[in-house]
Amino acid sequence: MNFAELEVGQQIGSRTLEISRADLVKYAGASGDFNPIHWNERFARGVELPGVIAHGMFTMGAAVQLVTDWAGDPAAVVSYGTRFTKPVPVADLDGEPGAVVEVSGTIGALDANAGTARIDLAVTLDGQKVLVKAQATVRVA
Amino acid sequence: MTINPQLQGRSYPAADVYSVGRESIREFARAVKAAHPAHFDVAAAQELGHADLVAPPTYAIIVAQRADARLINDPESGIDFSRVVHAEQKFTHHRAIVAGDELVAELHVDTVRAMGGGAMITTRAEIFSVAGDAVATTVSAILVRGEGH
């Protein structure tokens, strides 16, 4: 990738994330985050949630893959942050995903001195943002 | 249950060592639907100049949340884990995390703010290798929801 060819506003691509209950169980195991709100419907409703919700960190972690693939090296992502504004409820369905999240990325800023690009991610569920100010800084040069 | 306002400014020194293994990186990468070969294939990681498999950008959360657990499980904190919602997260990588790393985290409670019967708590984990080099800084904001929220 050539830094000089990048422009603010360029799209880096998009991806559709299909999320099932099994994905949340896998993420719980891989991350060590076993909070029952991410796998136990009764428990989630008992604490006034709409049902089982995805780990914010699952959504954040899956969304950044678009950036990693664009950068060509996972280690090029020097920083990454977001706010979690809406939960992602994941329904317990057979044969179809329990939630479908759309991810797209745009170059939000370029820093020629540092040789970095800031990628702004739009992450939505049913057209509503679930991550806000999801931004990753990528070392390009 | 109320959150102890005196938590602000508290810190927990580095304790348990987290050993980063290849299978842990592969399992985490699969869990976040990452497909980059540098997470799975040692030769592909080495071709990019890394010593071993490279962790995905959010992998440090494993170490950060273990550090957070020391605060959440601290009987003096007053935090009910079942009412914790993640509000904000940021990672700053000082170097890549690779398989073979031995990591420790120092946890700092930066702010505690009362909110609607609960509290917003910002923690910062400074992650180092056991050799002492800075690896990552993670900042988490968690909302502890009050009853009825």
TrEMBL record, chain A:
<dbReference type="GO" id="GO:0004312">
    <property type="term" value="F:fatty acid synthase activity"/>
</dbReference>
<dbReference type="GO" id="GO:0006633">
    <property type="term" value="P:fatty acid biosynthetic process"/>
</dbReference>
<dbReference type="InterPro" id="IPR003965">
    <property type="entry name" value="Fatty_acid_synthase"/>
</dbReference>
<comment type="similarity">
    <text>Belongs to the enoyl-CoA hydratase/isomerase family.</text>
</comment>
<dbReference type="InterPro" id="IPR002539">
    <property type="entry name" value="MaoC-like_dom"/>
</dbReference>
<dbReference type="GO" id="GO:0005835">
    <property type="term" value="C:fatty acid synthase complex"/>
</dbReference>
<dbReference type="Pfam" id="PF01575">
    <property type="entry name" value="MaoC_dehydratas"/>
</dbReference>
<dbReference type="InterPro" id="IPR029069">
    <property type="entry name" value="HotDog_dom_sf"/>
</dbReference>
<feature type="domain" description="MaoC-like">
    <location>
        <begin position="8"/>
        <end position="92"/>
    </location>
</feature>
<protein>
    <submittedName>
        <fullName>Acyl dehydratase</fullName>
    </submittedName>
</protein>
Automatic annotation (TrEMBL), chain B:
<dbReference type="GO" id="GO:0019171">
    <property type="term" value="F:(3R)-hydroxyacyl-[acyl-carrier-protein] dehydratase activity"/>
</dbReference>
<protein>
    <recommendedName>
        <fullName>UPF0336 protein CVV68_11330</fullName>
    </recommendedName>
</protein>
<comment type="similarity">
    <text>Belongs to the UPF0336 family.</text>
</comment>
<dbReference type="GO" id="GO:0006633">
    <property type="term" value="P:fatty acid biosynthetic process"/>
</dbReference>
<dbReference type="InterPro" id="IPR029069">
    <property type="entry name" value="HotDog_dom_sf"/>
</dbReference>
<dbReference type="InterPro" id="IPR016709">
    <property type="entry name" value="HadA-like"/>
</dbReference>
<feature type="domain" description="FAS1-like dehydratase">
    <location>
        <begin position="8"/>
        <end position="137"/>
    </location>
</feature>
<dbReference type="InterPro" id="IPR050965">
    <property type="entry name" value="UPF0336/Enoyl-CoA_hydratase"/>
</dbReference>
<dbReference type="InterPro" id="IPR039569">
    <property type="entry name" value="FAS1-like_DH_region"/>
</dbReference>
<dbReference type="Pfam" id="PF13452">
    <property type="entry name" value="FAS1_DH_region"/>
</dbReference>
